[in-house]
Write a structure and sequence with these properties.
7-stranded mixed beta sheet, about 15% strand, 22 helices, Rossmann fold, alpha/beta, single chain, 3-stranded mixed beta sheet
């Protein structure tokens, strides 16, 4: 159906699904570039080998994009790191069959295209960083043209499918944008990014107080048909950049609400709110809005695309911030990437099981998984057992729901309960809350008296004939370090763990913080894969606690992260 280049707008042709009618076909056009990336896959057997290489490269790229805390770098991807990733890509191109389906909704060719786009973003970031030392805040026009080209390339892949796939395209875009000069020149035009916190902001500036309040109380706008966020902009209202940002904010809120336990308890039934079709529709509108903006004036060709990309970089709504956050939410909450790593019948342990939403999802993904769910709050545990009554009846008979807390030893501990009638234990804790937490979250109050709860260490799972764990989710409100430090037998068997951790000053008095946990896990052979810690983001302006994914280097099936850590360590010398 032909490729096209600068004489016509490629995105307009793609949207019209009339590629064969597009004039101006040139080898350097974006469509040809994409085809060169994905079409170079040799049509011969070897899907299993190729998908193994894809998984290895994907894990390494995720670590490059998302293993960051408080704006820190995960370790520069220098020459050795880039050479390692390039070698992965070459292996994929050599060994993969053409047109085969993969485990997700991306075809094998689309997976290769996503991988190559990620790699090119890292190359571009490296080139921009090196040149920034010479040009200061005045980067040449060529960088804006390259960025426009790469952003345009992302529109040849379905954003929803990209987010589900685990390829960290938007996280790498965000890394590039973070290093973009706040002011500078590109040719004769000034490229300027406006500070979000401008007190004189117009109605289209973000984040507005109305959307901020929506973030703080997401449940208030949820109805049976899905999340409705007031003030979602249209192009005529704010311009396409602002409209894109507001649409992405809506999508982020919908996914976040669906992911973080907004449930309806109707009698004896367990009904998590799901509105993924509406979420996909909003994402598609966002893609379309960005596409229309980047299309620009077709008669201007490449110049029109570059100019509209410059406008996007000036936008007060940061689309890469929002899309990157969605990307991390998918990593942490969809578990699709985990399915590529874990066995078909995994042993899963969750401490802080709350009302059972994760267990319900896991048993859909892994019907024969052995689930060990810990929840010390008696009210929550009653909801947990009721909600999972039916699914546990069909689950692995060795699965258990336990009304106790994981800790460093067998015994009892004081448990601080949130005041009021709540069916979730999101902030109940084994430790006294800090003054900082009480000051920044005044809507949360505590019961005057603590209650005693039973505790057991992770290694006591042997009592239930569990001697190895494939996936551990640890959300025990400031007690994570105690649980991990005490484990001698179970911890080395874990393949992936997801834990909650906090930055200073923390949520609880006298407890270990993120750096303590990271140091402990690094010493025990784990490597950080991804976090959703973005206190510099408009989405998390004051949240000091976050989820972090760690992978056991000795258990990880592709050996991806061990080699990456070595390469980045050498680059850092």
């Amino acid at each position: 159906d032909g490729c096209f280049g600068r004489a016509a707008s490629p995105l307009h042709c793609c949207k019209a699904r009339r590629l064969s009618q597009c004039p101006g076909v040139t080898p350097e056009g974006p469509c040809c570039q994409l085809r060169a990336w994905s079409g170079a896959v040799a049509p011969r057997p070897g899907l299993e080998k190729a998908t193994g290489h894809l998984l290895r490269l994907k894990l390494r790229l995720v670590a490059c994009a998302h293993a960051r805390v408080a704006g820190s770098e995960p370790g520069a991807c220098g020459p050795r790191c880039l050479a390692l990733l390039s070698s992965d890509l070459e292996e994929i191109l050599r060994s993969g069959p053409k047109g085969e389906a993969t485990s997700g909704r991306l075809s094998f060719q689309e997976e290769v295209a996503a991988a190559a786009l990620c790699f090119r973003l890292l190359l571009f970031r490296r080139s921009m960083q090196k040149s920034a030392d010479n040009f200061g805040k005045n980067l040449p026009m060529k960088f804006l043209q390259e960025f426009a080209f790469l952003w345009e390339m992302s529109h040849f892949l379905n954003w929803q499918h990209l987010l589900e796939s685990g390829w960290p395209v938007f996280g790498l875009f965000r890394l590039v944008v973070q290093h973009w000069p706040r002011s500078g020149t590109a040719g004769n035009e000034t490229v300027r990014r406006t500070h979000r916190g401008n007190a004189t902001a117009s109605v289209c500036d973000g984040p507005s107080s109305k959307l901020r309040s929506s973030l703080e109380a997401m449940g208030s706008d949820i109805d049976g048909e899905g999340l409705r966020v007031p003030g979602v902009g249209e192009p005529k209202e704010c311009g396409w950049q602002e409209s894109l940002g507001k649409l992405l904010m809506t999508a982020w809120l919908i996914y976040n609400a669906n992911s973080y336990r907004y449930h309806m308890y109707n009698g004896e039934s367990f009904a998590p709110l799901e509105d993924m079709p509406f979420y996909e529709m909003v994402l598609h509108r966002s893609w379309e809005q960005s596409l229309l903006g980047l299309t620009g004036d077709a008669s201007q060709g490449q110049r029109g695309t570059v100019e509209t990309t410059a406008q996007l970089l000036q936008s007060r709504w940061d689309p890469w911030d929002l899309l990157s956050s969605l990307e991390v939410l998918h990593l942490h909450r969809s578990w699709r990437l985990f399915k590529e790593i874990l066995p078909a019948q995994p042993v899963i342990v969750e401490a802080g099981a709350n009302d059972g939403i994760h267990e319900a999802i896991w048993l859909q993904e892994w019907p024969t998984a052995q689930i060990m769910a810990f929840e010390p709050d008696p009210t929550c545990f009653a909801h947990l057992t009721r909600n999972l009554r039916d699914v546990m009846g069909r689950a692995n008979p060795n699965s258990k729901l336990l009304n106790m807390a994981l800790s460093g030893k067998v015994g009892q501990m004081d448990f601080y309960l949130r005041d009021g009638n709540f069916s979730t234990s999101a902030v109940n804790t084994l430790h006294e809350p800090t003054d900082w937490f009480n000051e920044h979250f005044p809507q949360i109050s505590w019961q005057r008296e603590t209650v005693k709860v039973q505790t057991m260490p992770l290694d006591s799972l042997a009592f239930y004939d569990v001697h190895a764990v494939d996936f551990l989710e640890l959300d025990v409100q400031c007690h994570e370090y105690n649980v991990l430090q005490a484990s001698i037998k179970i911890l080395p068997t874990i393949t992936i763990m997801q834990i909650e951790a906090c930055l200073p000053p923390g949520m609880c008095k006298g407890t270990a913080l993120y750096e303590d946990i990271r140091t402990l896990l690094t010493q025990r052979g784990f490597s950080l894969l991804a976090t959703d810690a973005k206190p510099d983001s408009l989405l998390h302006p004051q949240d000091r606690c976050f989820d972090a994914l760690f992978v056991n280097l000795a258990k990880e099936p592709t050996g991806a992260l061990a080699a990456l850590d070595v390469a980045r360590g050498l680059d850092a010398r």
